[in-house]
Design a protein that fits this description.
- The chain has 127 residues and is mostly helical.
- The chain has a domain of 85 residues.
């Protein structure tokens, strides 16, 4: 059984990770632009001089907090992708951190930042 991915395979995964990373950075930028750079009045679409209703303010606040939560999750995903990229460089990419076997290409194509093979991931989720 193979112990590591070859250079050609690693180049493929680096490109995949870079593409996903760009998508995440764009998502974070979009969320940031929509959430942080607009005033509450602009975000609600209300440009009149009328006072806000408490329910509208609460909804707008919830929407902003939800968007910031998404950006935070995306940031965590970005960290995972960066870590996977480092692993492609140090020779540990695609190796299960639990059983040390090779993670399948199919799994890595879907989850390029996977740290565990499917079997070990299932064991972890059962706990």
């Amino acid at each position: 059984m193979k112990k590591k991915y070859n250079k050609k395979e690693l180049v493929f995964f680096r490109k995949l990770i870079s593409k996903r990373r760009e998508e995440i950075v764009d998502d974070i930028k979009h969320i940031s632009d929509d959430t942080l750079k607009k005033s509450q009045k602009e975000a609600s679409g209300d440009i009149s001089g009328y006072t806000y209703h408490m329910a509208d303010v609460a909804t707008d606040t919830y929407d902003r907090e939800f968007s910031l939560g998404l950006a935070s999750s995306e940031g965590q995903f970005l960290y995972e992708l960066d870590d996977a990229m480092k692993k492609t460089e140090d020779g540990t990419f695609g190796i299960c951190e639990s059983c040390k076997s090779l993670i399948s290409k199919v799994r890595l194509k879907v989850v390029p930042h996977a740290r565990l093979c499917v079997r070990c991931q299932q064991k972890k989720e059962k706990k």
